[in-house]
Each structure stands twice: as C-alpha cells, then as structure tokens.
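May I ask for whichever protein you like with its backbone structure tokens?
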Amino acid sequence: MGKRNPNGYGCVTKLKGNRSKPWIVKVTIYDQDGFSKQMPVGYEESEEKANILLAQYNNNPWDIDREKITLAALYQRWSGLKLPKLGESLQSNLKSAFKHCSKYYGLKYRSIRAYHMQDCIDNCGCGYSTQGSVKNLFGHLDRFAYEMDITEKMYSQIITAPPIPETTKSIFTDEQIERLWKIQGEEWVDTVLIFIYSGFRITELLSMTTDQVNLEEKTFKGGIKTASGKGRIVPIHPRIFQFVRNRVEQGNEYFLSIDNKKATQSKYRTIWGKIMNQIEADKTPHEARHTFETRLDNANANRKCIDLLMGHKSKDVGNRVYNHKTIEQLKQTIELLK
C-alpha cells in the first residue's frame, strides 16, 4: 500500500484509456461551505513525474510551468494569499461566484479568454448581484495572474455584467410585518422578525454565536464591520424574546444554524426569498435593518440611543460605556417598537 498523502495535499491518479499523459495531478480546494473538492493542476507521462509535480506544487505552486496553471489551481493560490485580505461579505460572494465557473476549472488559465468569462456570467442562472460577483472574481484572478507573470492580457477588463438597478431603501410596511406575525410559527419566519426588531446586519446575525446571547440579561452582544459597531449591546425586544430563547436552546454553536452549522449568506438569502414570496414583499435583510432604525426614529427615540443600537458613529456617542443606566436606556428605546 502506498504512502497516504496528508489532508489537503492533493493526489495523483491514473486516467483510463490510451493517453500520452494518463497521470492526473489534483489539488484540494474548498467552497464557501467548507466542503473540499479536487481540481486538476496538470497531467504527466508517469506516476513518478506526477508525484514530483504535486510535490513542487505544494512546495511552491509557482515553481512549476506557468503554462500548466489551471483556473482551479490559480484560484487555489489566490484564495490562500489574497482572499483573506478582503472583507468577510466580499469573501463569501467571491467564493460563491467561483462555483459558477466550474465548467472551466480544468482549463489552463493562459487559455481562458473573455468569452469564457462572459459565458460564466451570462449562464450562471442568477441575478445581477451574482453576475457582478463572477465578473469581480475574474478581475481579481486576472490581476493575480498578471502579477505572477502567468498572463499578459487581462480579458476581465472587457467582460460585462448587468448594472445593479437603482433602488431606494424602503421599509417593511405595517401590513407586511403583520403578515409575518400571522405565520410566525412557520420555519425561519422568526428570523425575519428578529432582524426587524434587532437592527443587525445580515453578516452580524449570521456570525453571532449563541454565547453572545444573554437570556438572563435579555441582550445580544455582537456586531462587526466598524469600530462603532463591534461588540455593541442590543436589548432583546419582548416580542421576539421567545424566538431568541428557542434558538439558543437548540444548543447549536451559532445563533442561526442550518443543519447544526453556521448559515451561509447564500443559503439564508434563499430561505429569506421564500418567506418574502409568502408575504408578497420584495425586501432585503438590509431593509429590515432600515425598518428598525426608521421605526425608532418615527417613535421619537433618542438619536444617541439609536446610533448605539445600530452601531453607527455619532458625534453624540463618545466612549461606548455600557453601564447599567445606558443598557436601561437602550431597553426603553427598543420597547418604543410597538
């Protein structure tokens, strides 16, 4: 029995049929949900040469012939070096976009042209947001390939994606919120109401762990993105407290979990869309956040308290000291939402 390669190292296998280079070298990449998939790096005449190629790749992927770098191999290296430097939401979007390029995973990157990229955009079967993410991904990969002297032309500069339509932020109407309360017992409807009554961003609520929820104090502690937003305390509105308790008592690591795992944006947005269809509303999680802020403002809530709850920077908010008095003020503010 041959020596087993370590996890994530890759593998060498022999293809069937009469081929001049029957030995394929594959490396492991991971999708946005953490699932691994093996993608080809190159082909060799013998098993020995294939193992050498795999070893070279793992030692330094750019020591091997740049002519052989496939789309998958380029993405693997780029995702290790460049992707972690981007924002969490953008990382998720670009990882998801890579799934829509699967038909060209094994194509040498030097052979990829604008029409290949455009094909991934036009036939991804998704809306303008995902199409824009695919275009954006090829822009990142092109720049990386140019930086590594793999290509001399950046075809991503001439591909197109439909523009994001101009929209104005709108809030959930009272009628739409009432429709949600009428179906509150249906799966995942509670999460939409939690968004509306807490004001969290989608990235904040999906990354929240259950130990950030204090049922005794009836508060959330979470928030990301800005210095003003991180670690903020948001009291749990009485109307959603039982929803929150039920979620925490499920015993999952993350507050919003799918199959006991952290819910990804793509999966949650699919769930969200189905609920919006039920109540005949075309709203986004960000519009739920906007609804929270607008309804507090309409209730004449203190602006300093609104900014603390939203995680906004405010000239009226100095050091965010969440003492007992401040938390009581925030609870009173939250309860202005009737």
